[in-house]
Specification:
Residues 37-214 form the Ionotropic glutamate receptor C-terminal domain. Helices cover 36% and strands 6% of the residues. It is mostly helical and 217 residues long. It folds into two domains: 13-111, D-Maltodextrin-Binding Protein, domain 2 (3-Layer(aba) Sandwich), CATH 3.40.190.10; 140-216, no CATH class. It has a three-stranded mixed β-sheet, with no helix packed on it. Strand 4 (80-81) and strand 5 form a beta hairpin.
Length: 217
C-alpha cells in the first residue's frame, strides 16, 4: 500500500520500491532515509505488511537486529536466465540483499545457490471446473478402462468359471451327483457366482468349490 502524505506508514513497515537492484543506489537511498535529510522520493516509498512482515518483526525482536526493506527491482522471484540469476535470488547472490522474506517456493535449482529456512507456511494449488449438468449414464463405471480391457476381463472370468466347473465335476471330492453322495451340486452358475463375487469384492451366499484344484484356481 502507499504511504500517507507525510511519507509514513500508518500500518506495517516502511519499504522502498526503487525499481532497481543496484546495491550502491539502494545503500544511498537507505542512508538518506535513516539520516536527518530524507531526500527519498515519495513515489519510492511503500508500506509492506502481512504475515511475512509480522514474522520478520518478531525475528528481529528475538535476535536483536535491524533491517531495511525494499521490493526487488524486477519483481521476480528468481530464475536462471542467460547465465545469471534474476529476482530475489539474484539480489541475494550479488549481495544487494542479505535476506529475502516472501512466500518463496523451494526447488532444486534455487536450493543449490541459496539457503532456505525451514518451511513455515504451506499452500497448494487447485483447479476449479464447472460440474456437469447432466447425470452420469448407467455405464459410467466402465469409463476408467478401455472396452477391450473390459472384454478381456469378462472373457477370462467366464473361462475361469468353465474350468472351475470342470475341475469340481471331475474331482471325486467335488460337489457332483457322483461325489460321495453330496446333496448339493456345484454347477456352472455356481462358478459364475463365485467369480463375480470375487471380481466385485462382494460377499454372497454362494457355493464354494470343495476340491483343492478348484479352490486354488
Amino acid at each position: 500500500r502507499n504511504v500517507d502524505d507525510d511519507g509514513q506508514c500508518p500500518a506495517g513497515q516502511l519499504c522502498l520500491d526503487p525499481m532497481t537492484n543496484d546495491s550502491a543506489i539502494l545503500d544511498s537511498l537507505f542512508e538518506s532515509l535513516q539520516g536527518g535529510n530524507d531526500t527519498v522520493p515519495i513515489e519510492y516509498k511503500r508500506c509492506c505488511y502481512g504475515y511475512c512482515i509480522d514474522l520478520l518483526e518478531k525475528l528481529a525482536e528475538d535476535m536483536n537486529f535491524d533491517f531495511d526493506l525494499y521490493i526487488v527491482g524486477d519483481g521476480k522471484y528468481g530464475a536462471f536466465k542467460s547465465g545469471h540469476w534474476t529476482g530475489l535470488v539474484g539480489d541475494l547472490l550479488s549481495g544487494a540483499a542479505h535476506m529475502a522474506v516472501t512466500s518463496f517456493s523451494i526447488n532444486t535449482a534455487r536450493s543449490q545457490v541459496i539457503d532456505f529456512t525451514s518451511p513455515f507456511f504451506s499452500t497448494s494449488l487447485g483447479i476449479l471446473v464447472r460440474t456437469k449438468d447432466t447425470a452420469a449414464p448407467i455405464g459410467a463405471f466402465m469409463w476408467p478402462l478401455h472396452w477391450t480391457m473390459w472384454l478381456g476381463i469378462f472373457v477370462s472370468l467366464h473361462i475361469t468359471a468353465i474350468f472351475l466347473t470342470l475341475y469340481e465335476w471331475k474331482s471325486p471330492f467335488g460337489m457332483t451327483p457322483n461325489g460321495r453322495n453330496r446333496s448339493k451340486v456345484f454347477s456352472f452358475s455356481s462358478a459364475l457366482n463365485v467369480c463375480y463375487a470375487i471380481l466385485f469384492g462382494r460377499t454372497a451366499a454362494i457355493k464354494t468349490p470343495k476340491c483343492w484344484t478348484g479352490r486354488f484356481l
